[in-house]
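yo

u said u wanted the structure for the complex thing, so here. seqs first:
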Amino acid sequence: MRKNWPVITLGLVLLAGLVAPFADRSTSPGFYVEVLLGGLMAGVLYSLVALGFALIFKASGVFNFAQGAMVLFAALAVARLAEQVPLWVAMLIAMVIMVALAWVIERLVLRPLVNQEGVALLMATLGVSYFLDGFGQTIWGSDIYKIELGIPKEPVMILESLFQGGILVNKEDFVAAIVATALVAALALFFQKTTTGRALRAVADDHQAAQSIGIPLNRIWVIVWSVAGFVALVAGVIWGSKLGVQFSLSQVALKALPVVILGGFTSVTGAVVGGLIIGVGEKMAEVFLGPVMVKAFDLAGGGIENWFAYVLALLFLLVRPEGLFGEKLIDRV
Amino acid sequence: MNRRANFLMLAVSAMAAAIGSTAAMAQAKEQFFPVLSYRTGPYAPNGAPFANGFVDYLKLVNARDGGINGVKITYEECETGYATDRGVECYERLKGKGPTGATLFHPLSTGITFAVTDKSFNDKIPIVTAGYGRADSRDGTVFGWNFPLGGTYWDAADMLVQHVGKKEGGLDKLKGKKIALVYHDSPYGKEPIALLQERAKMHGFEVLLLPVTHPGVEQKATWLQIRQQRPDYVFLWGWGVMNSTSIKEAVATGYPREKMYGVWWSGAEPDVTPAGDGAKGYNALVFLAPAGQGAVHKDVIKYLHDKGQGTGKKEEIGEVLYNRGMVSAMMSVEAVKRAHIKYGKKPLRGEEVRWGLENLAIDKAAIKRLGFDGFMLPVSTSCADHAGSAPASVHIWDGKRWNVQPGIYEADQQILKPMIRASAEKYAAEKKINKRDCAIEAG
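structre next:
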């Protein structure tokens, strides 16, 4: 209990932040719920990208900086292919492209770096990220492209009898949340219940030990990068349908970085919980804390949504470096 | 010995060739235009059509007219990615190119404009910011090298207030109303704040400031605040993907698009088409060049695209940003032409081109002659006024095309002038700039 006091203190501060908006009497419960829901929906989408980070880190110990670029690349492929063929065919072809990409990355980037320092692998994925950003725009174009999933964009009002004016919910966000939840559940099952999933976890624990008992390291890496490619494809399609497919997708996807810091690099559950905390935290901060800061410091605006997630992640790093659900690393010296 | 002699001869001829080519360059009858563009990154959907229009016009002047009064145009593009540091790099790399150095610069970013303004004083190269840049740079006595041709963001904000005032039945009817400014959290987005606050004091309306951080794809919280505050109007000061995201979020939160007004950089095809039918009824200011085609576009097709020498897609010709790029290039070419009257028909230095920019007189007849009839209103500048007149209209997106609404607005200079003077003088004091005396210079 005494050892955990920093975490408990941080938790209490966050909880206090969550109820603080009610100190201002102008905050209606309906609006509060709307902001909360908006944050949760955004959080689910962050979780979707964070899953890709967690998967690769879990299976190979590599922090894949290129996950955001993979989201953009997959979304661009789907959007441009869908101009020629039906959407589901475009998604299938894009999936084949993502598997091919995983194979190329394994052959050209990862294999030569087996047993190298983690920082070398991180730098390699940084290179892959820049390459994919540029290459994707070169072959698919740099305009804003549409992915039409057929989900109505108009909002709906719910709980009108409970809250004055009702709660505004976006159907697109709602569908995205369901898809993301289903994907998280499927991945959790894959990791826990299948032979391949167990092999992936074994490789994550120790490359050499896994090899010594006959687990083919290279094949496992291709599989895990393909799964991360699939996650990128789903995230890209959902984000792309919401925001339009364009370069900024890869930057938005990087919002998953504070999510994995907060949730823990090796945890699928952490990716989900971290995403929700970051999503709710940043929306609450922007809506309720932002105006207070503008008044207090006489700022001419200054959106805090973008950096708040990183501040939150930093605070977690200080009190719990392994993240909420990450594995604690103990090195013998 | 023979090999040595051969080597010496080779070296001597190489040196002679190098000296010869340098001399040829110095004598080349060429006018160099640097083109700062962004064809990649989050702002590429807007940056690319502007650059295509700009470059197409330069090519057209060479192909159709044989250059500017016989002086061939050369140009080089430099990709800034809309990033200030890369923009400054491009400026440094291109300022000395061509036989007389860079003619002028169009930074195509307010951030880059802020960064290169100080440099322009030493380099003596004009910085043309058609419809962007610093609002106070209209004052040519302090900002000797900046030319916000066609209007500034203070002009734009003032015209939008006038427009919504007119809709309400008079500016006095704005009392008690709320206007939200959803802006790109950058020097560009912050420019209109001072003017809106000034107008708010005069007419008693409230201004809600809602910043959106770069690149502008996360606006959920912003639009939740709009839903809570229910402003009477939303002014959108976005760029690139931020614009279409704003319209999509307005749809998602049920804010009427008819109450949304974009600045002229938030009112082109890439801003509305990604939002599909949801963008119907959205309004924006339009200055200099609305969408459509005229005589000059026919020339672009005939002299360039039909010969496979066009820039970008043929379907893009006539779009808002393509046309704006073309008009910006045209005004630059006209400035060089104007300067030829004083300095002769030869390649000119930036310093000489400045005289052309300060004496621009593009009247109705010139607009017609140049093939831009219906795409811009007359512009004339002076040593003290570097922007000239800045009229603009409002156009509405009907789901397929932009429709320009009747009525032309002009900013109220009685409000703007004292603000410009105060801001420019503050800048002059900070930077220790000696103000120019235009009467003496003309004298």
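Chain B has a mean pLDDT of 91. The longest strand of chain B covers residues 30-37.
cya
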